[in-house]
Amino acid sequence: METSFLLAKLNMLMTSDHSSVVSMNLFVALLCACIVVGHWLEEYRWMNESITALAIGLCTGAVILLTTGGKSSRLLVFSEDLFFIYLLPPIIFNAGFQVKKKQFFRNFLTIMLFGAIGTLISFGIISLGAVHIFQKMKIGPLELRDYLAIGAILSATDSVCTLQVLNQDETPLLYSLVFGEGVVNDAASVVLFNAIKSFDLTHINSRIALEFMGNFLYLFITSTMLGVLAGLLSAYIVKKLYFGRHSTDREVALMILMAYLSYMLAEFFYLSAILTVFFCGIVMSHYTWHNVTESSRVTTKHVFATLSFVAEIFIFLYVGMDALDIEKWGVVSNSPGKSIKVSSILLGLVLIGRAAFVFPLSFLSNLTRKSKYEKIDLKQQVTIWWAGLMRGAVSMALAYNQFTRSDAKLRGNAFMITSTITVVLFSTVVFGLLTKPLVRILLPSTKYFASTTSSEPSSPKSFTQPLLSNRHELESHQNGKNILRPSSLRKLLSTPSHTVHHYWRKFDDAFMRPVFGGRGFVPFIPCSPTDQDDHQWL
Which of 358, 388, 389, 383 lies closest to 436, judged by CA? Predict the structure, then answer.
C-alpha cells in the first residue's frame, strides 16, 4: 500500500516537473520570438521590443485561455519575488552603469524634484481622487490604506519602457530627465507603498505625517549612500587585488556579484534597493570599470546590457499573458461598464497627477537655469509629461501585493487589480506607440538639440568619459590651457554645473581616484588596461 502511494506521488512529481519543463521551453521560445519580431518591427520603426513582447504575451495568453477552456492564460505564475529580486536589479543597475553621467548630474536637482517631490504630488492627487470618487461609486469594501496604496501604485512610472522609447543620443536632456526621474520615482513609489503598509493610518495626525516624511527622506539618503559605498568597495578591491593578472573571469564575476549584493543588502536592511543598485552602477562605471582589464571592460558592458535586455523582454511578455488571467476578470465580468469607468477614472487621475507637477516644477527648474538652451521649454515639458505616463511591471507587482494577498475575489480588490492592468496595458501600448512620433513632431531638430546639450559621444567610448566632464574641458586639458571659473557667489549660482564640476574634479583627482582607482590612476601591470586609452580622455 505504501509502495503504491509512493509510486503515485513520484509519478505526480515527474508529471509536474515535465509540465514545468514544457512551460519553460515555450516561454524561452516566446522570448526568442519577441527579440526577432521586435527587431524586424523596429527596423521599420513601428514599435519597440517592449510593446512587441506585450502584444505577443497578450496573443499567447488568449491562445492558452482558449486551449484550456478558460481556466488559465499563463505559462508561469507571477511572483513578486521573481520580479523584484531577479528581474528588476539587472535593468536598474545597467541603467546606472550606462547612463551619461554628465547629463544626469547636470540635471540632478531637476531629476530629484520630479522624482521625489513630483511623486508625492502625483500620489496625493491620485489618492484623493480615488477616495472622493470611488467611495461614491461603491465599488466594494476598500479601506483608506487601499486608496493610498493605489495612489502609490499608479505613481510609479515605467522607466523600463522609457529606455525603449526615448533615445539617449537623439534627446539626451529628455532621456536624462525622464529616465532619471523614472528611477527615483520607482524608488519613491515603493518607499511610499511600504510606508503605507507599515504605518498606522487609523489615527492620522501631524506626528504621523512628520514620521512618514522623515522615514521617506531617511530611506532615500541611506539607500543612495549604500549604493555609493558598495560601488567604492568594489573599486577598492579590484584595484588592490587586481584579479586581471590571473583571471579576467574573477573580476567580471566580482563586479556582477558586488552589484547584486548591493541590491540584496538594501532589501535586507529594508531600504530602497532600486536607488541603491542605480547609484552602485554609476559609481562602478566611474571607478571599478576603469580598474579592470580591457577585455573585462568589453565583457562587463555587454553582459550587463544583455541581462537587462532579456529581463525587460521577460517582464513585458509575462505582463501580457497575465493580463488575461480569468480569476481577476471573473469577479468584475458582471459589471463591465463600471470596470471601464473605474479604469478611465484612474487613467484620468494619472494624467492630471503628472501634469500637476511636471509643468510647475519645470517652471521652478527654469528659474535656476540661466542659459536659454538649458531651459526646459513648453514642447519639452509636454514630451516629459507624455513620456512619463506609461505604467508597467512595478505598478502590477505592487497591485498584486496589495490586493491579492488578502483576497483577490473581493469585489473592491478585483476592481483595483483589473483597473491597474487596464491602465498598464493602455498606457504602455498607446502612449508608448505615440511617444516617438510626438518627439519627432515637437522636437524636429533633435540632431541640433543633441549637439547642444550633450557633449558625450554616442559610441561605446562614452563609457570612458569622466563624471560630469565635457569635450571642451577635455580638449582644454589636453592643450594645457586653464579654464576660467566663476569666482563670486553670484557667478556660482548663475553657472553652478561648471563650478561644481570644477571642484568635484579637483576633489576626485586629489582624494578619490588615488584610493579607488579610475581613469589614469591604475598602476601599469602587464595585461592591465592600456594607459594610452586612458590618457587620451584626460
Answer: 383
Other C-beta atoms lying within 10 Å of the C-beta of residue 127: 23
Highest-scoring range by mean pLDDT, 93-97, 228-232, 374-378: 228-232
- The dihedrals phi and psi of 390, each to the nearest 5 degrees, come to -70, 135
Question: CA of 323: how far to CAs of 61, 115, 148, 349, 419, in Å?
Answer: 8, 28, 23, 21, 10
Between the alpha carbon of residue 330 and those of residues 78, 324, 372, the distances in Å are 18, 10, 55
pLDDT tens, position by position, 78-96:
677 888 899 889 988 998 8
Give me 485's grid cell. 571659473
DSSP string of 242-291, one letter each residue: -GGGT-HHHHHHHHHHHHHHHHHHHHHTTS-HHHHHHHHHHHIIIIIHHH
pLDDT per residue as tens digits for the range 110-156: 998 999 899 999 999 999 999 999 988 878 788 888 999 999 999 98
First to last CA, the chain: 78
- Cα torsion for 442, 448, 449, 455, to the nearest 10°? 160
Q: Which helix (H) or strand (E) holds 435?
A: helix 432-442
Taking the whole predicted model, whether its pTM rises above 0.85 is answered as: no
Q: Say how many CA atoms lie within 13 Å of 146 toward its Cβ.
A: 24
- How many other C-beta atoms lie within 10 A of the C-beta of residue 356? 16
